[in-house]
Amino acid sequence: MAAANPFDRTLSQLTIGGAVSPFKFYDLTKLDDARLYTLPYSIRVLLESAVRNCDEFEVVSADVTKILDWVNTSKQEDEIPFKAGRVILQDFTGVPAVVDLAAMRSCVARLGGDPSIINPVVPVDLVIDHSVQVDCAGTPDAVVKNQEMEMERNSERFQFLKWGATAFENLLIVPPGSGIVHQVNLEYLARVVMEKDNVLFPDSLVGTDSHTTMINGLGVVGWGVGGIEAEAVMLNQAVSMVLPQVVGFKLTGAVGELLTATDLVLTITEILRKVDVVGKFVEFFGDGCQALSLADRATLANMAPEYGATMGYFPVDFRSIEFLHQSGRPADKVAMIEAYLKANALYVDYAAKQPTPTYTQVVELDLSTVVPSLAGPKRPHDRIALKDMQQVWRAGLTADHGKQNKGWKAFGLAPEAVGASATIKLASDPSGKEYTLRHGDVVIAAITSCTNTSNPSVMLGAGLVARNAVAKGLKVKPTIKTSLAPGSGVVTRYLEASGLQPALDALGFHTVGYGCTTCIGNSGDIDANIDAAIERADLVVGAVLSGNRNFEGRVHPKTRANYLASPPLVVAYALAGTVDIDFDTEPLGTGSDGRPVFLRDIWPTNTEVQDVVSRNVLPAMFREVYANITAGTAQWQALAVEPSQLFKWSEDSTYIHHPPYFGKLALEPQPIVDLSNAHCLLNLGDSITTDHISPAGNIAKNSPAAKFLNSKGVDAKDFNSYGARRGHDDVMARGTFANTRLINKLSDKVGPFTCHVPSGEQLPIWDAAARYMAAGQQTIIFGGALYGSGSSRDWAAKGPMLQGVKCVIATSFERIHRSNLVGMGILPLQFKDGEDADKLGLTGKETFSIDLTSRPMEVGQPITVHVSTGASFTAKLRLDTAVELQYYAHGGVLNYVLRNMLRKHFAAKK
Q1: pLDDT at residue 793 tops 80
Q2: pLDDT digits (tens, 9 = 90+) for 691-740
Q3: Three-state SS across 730-791?
Q4: Does the pLDDT of residue 381 top 70, yes or no?
């Protein structure tokens, strides 16, 4: 039972500007423990949460002791609880979260309880930003047309979310057309310091998107979790986590005059991937931090999933306070934030020469050594120095020819195919002009993604490149689909105020919408004739985008070469028209004066960029944009919603469906069962990402999901995307593992196919899974290293569970995905070091049995897997904490939480 907080003795009154305020806070300095000042600042935030929430039940005094002794306990993988202050969602992951909450209410009502007990306890902010697609581009009315199509496609989903805002307390909905969730969080939603009952505490959050970490740049502790785990946090459950190690990243010096924040983040991503920071915090420190603007820090923090860390954290300092003023936060609020953080040892004061915290490991970078870079063509951490790009591109074209598994920079063309080309006429051009398409030609150039659209320096830098290019008479080929998707209306304000938007428009970079577009595969169609020519001539064409993800099949099904670059470089590659160029020796094109124009002729210096930033990025813009952020467009306001406590489910809906998780849930869990003669559904290699697993992008017209939608009377033109249909389990289960680039060792072709082992037939993965389930046969999956890396997608775990998968055995797991598997009742096992399915001689055509019931399960215990061949091997149980054992015993975290809530509810009614 909960008891009085033993740390109430540290409660202190806050003084602001010499005057006593009405606010109290748990003063860490009153712990009278010198170890406080050796702790990384990110760990101090975890400490404050433990001190404030200590009730000797969920959070106990021993947890505070563990955190104070972080230097030692972090090496022992000690478990601690963490209570986040709030939850943030985007609509792709938010819709299924609200669907689950609505289904939980239905379950409570079915069992005779009060549905209102299912209600967010902590504040929840949901930003609708993932539904807009680049259907229309390169025209002044693109944004209007795309928003109209967004509303037309998604009105049912949006209606459901609007219902959720009326039905649930503590749920704020930011309507479509407002911006990208992480940028809106940075510019508006972030509290930095929160307050409840006049008690102040550091802002902290979990989010259902891996790039939640962007807020770490503002000194807010937060990271991405699965939708399942986020729902538990909404319902006031502590996050059970292993006390993380913290890698200190020391920054010295300053970046060069021609460098961008994107160059810096791609460099740091490459460095940290080699260090291996998976499951760790990264905390930036050193004098070099002072040289980075808040926007630059947010860009670095945003990419934490790409370098593998749980967080990339910048403690609050004068730059943070500077940004709060710049972004229009009230002055009295900013004064309170600064006073509190300074009083509680949570503020970095460079002038005070505070002691440097102790870190698990220190990595160092002299910012002056960073060079212009991009990353790709298949992974965000494969950095390429711009000067080496052409050489790397050309070598990669024929690398690994004849191999099924291509390298990360290889395309495997036959040498004789390098010169392939196709002559095309654009379907959209009635003049019939002919164009030649070759390997390396850029067909998509997109200024997109929260990573960079939140940063005025790179956005205005892109505008300056465009202005200089237009002045020289350069143009972009009509074969390239160009787009600009600002992360908030503030970007439009400062691009217009600076006079740079017309130049971007002149090159085709018209605004296409305010949301996450090309970076998540919402790039829309390319010209039909280009699409056909790529297929016909087997061309390796490119997409260049200012995003954070470029995994295979993500940006567009037909772009095999996808490169991440700064917004100015996106403009440059659009002008060049190809990635097969050496910018030092080859011109972008010929100017109106007949002279060649090189990149150096139009590239601005950082001094020029910062001058434009200082004159045009103003607090009034932020206040104006966010004054009525929740009102939405006239179309949003016109959506009719009937308020009700319970959602009225419809079996006719193909967007919102009552999920099966709670339909037959009873107050007591079913016993754990052994795995007996389970078949292998998939045998996968290394770096299988959630983009390979989770349904995303377009719904292929001959896929199992398409057949289901057809059976419901939905025409192909109305399929929309998997992301838009995340609230319907029947669609999503059929789209799991539907990636066209999936390589499964049980299939003789690339794509979403597998062998149904009993019959030997090659089938779509869903069809094989359905056949196993109909026969009552259990299934498992083999995976390689970093299984499940990528975005924190709940459907990457929900989908396999609905396909009947009981266990995943992998070489290693990405943090969020492993947690999500546990959250859906799927058992994660890890091969011993140096072992995998191939090295053990397993093809996946055997059957597998696992004893889970002969003795109580323990955290990290060895598990023996028996193979039908008579062999066996031992794997590590990746239930990493005691509470995860409970989650698995209950069939998942939501089942566990719901049963606990029901028990308390019914006990209180007696």
Answers
A1: no
A2: 899 998 789 989 999 999 999 999 998 898 888 899 999 999 999 999 98
A3: HHHHHHCCCCCCCCECCCCCCCCEEEECCCCEEEEHHHHHHHHHHCCCCEEEEECCCECECC
A4: yes
Q: Are 286 and 323 in contact (CB under 8 A)?
A: no
- Contact criterion met (CB below 8 Å) for 540 and 505: no
Would you state the structure tokens that stand for residue 507, as one six-digit string? 């090159």
3-state secondary structure 321-340: HHHHHHCCCCHHHHHHHHHH
According to CATH, the superfamily of the domain at 675-694+736-879 is: Aconitase, domain 4 (3.20.19.10)
Which two three-digit tokens encode residue 251? 């920054």
Q: CA of 878: how far to CAs of 688, 817, 829, 861, in Å?
A: 18, 12, 5, 8
Say if residues 477 and 578 touch (Cβ distance below 8 Å).
no
Question: Looking up tokens 């990208």, which residue turns up?
Answer: 180
Q: How far is CA 871 from the centre of its chain?
A: 40
Cα angle: 444, vertex 450, 455; to 5 degrees: 100
**Average per-residue pLDDT for the chain:** 94
The torsion angle over the Cα atoms of residues 638, 642, 644 and 650, rounded to 10 degrees, is -100
- Band (pLDDT 50/70/90 cuts) for residue 1 is low
86-369: CATH superfamily: Aconitase, domain 3 (3.30.499.10)
> Which token pair is 760?
């030997």
Strand partners, 753: 764
Pull the structure tokens for residue 475.
């143009």
- Domain chopping of the chain, boundaries: 86-369, 375-624, 675-694+736-879
DSSP H stretches of helix in 111-209: 142-167, 181-184
Tokens standing for residue 425: 């006429």
pLDDT at 834 over 60: yes
Cβ atoms of residues 434 and 479 within 8 Å: no
Beta bridge partners of 541: 559
Q: What are phi and psi of 617, to 5 degrees?
A: -105, 105
Q: What is the pLDDT of residue 792?
A: 60
Token readout for 649 is 């489910």
DSSP, res 488: B
How far does CA 189 lie from the centroid of its chain?
A: 18
Q: How far apart are CA 756 and CA 634, in angstroms?
A: 51
Residues 770-773: contacts with CB under 8 Å, at least 24 apart: 770/803, 772/679, 772/681, 772/804, 773/803, 773/804
Q: Is the pLDDT of residue 11 over 80?
A: yes
* CATH code for the structural domain at 375-624: 3.30.499.10
Pairing mode, if any, of strands 847-850 and 675-683? antiparallel
Q: Do domains 86-369 and 675-694+736-879 have the same CATH topology?
A: no
Q: Of 70-79, 356-365, 548-557, which gets the smallest average pLDDT?
A: 548-557
Instruction: Please give the biggest Cα pair distance in the chain.
Output: 88
pLDDT digit string, tens, across residues 565-606: 999 999 999 999 999 999 999 999 999 999 999 999 999 999
pLDDT tens column, 110-155 = 999 999 999 999 999 999 998 899 999 999 999 999 999 999 888 9
Hey, what's the torsion of the CAs at 783, 696, 139, 188, to 10 degrees? -90
CA 71/CA 34 separation, integer angstroms? 13
Upper half-sphere CA count for residue 881 (Cβ side, 13 Å): 19
Does the CA dihedral 320-323-329-332 come out positive or negative?
A: positive
What's the confidence (pLDDT) of residue 791? 66
Of 324, 248, 320, 255, the C-alpha closest to 280 is 248
pTM of this prediction? 0.87
Identity of residue 871: A
DSSP per-residue string spanning 615-628: HH--HHHHHHHHTT
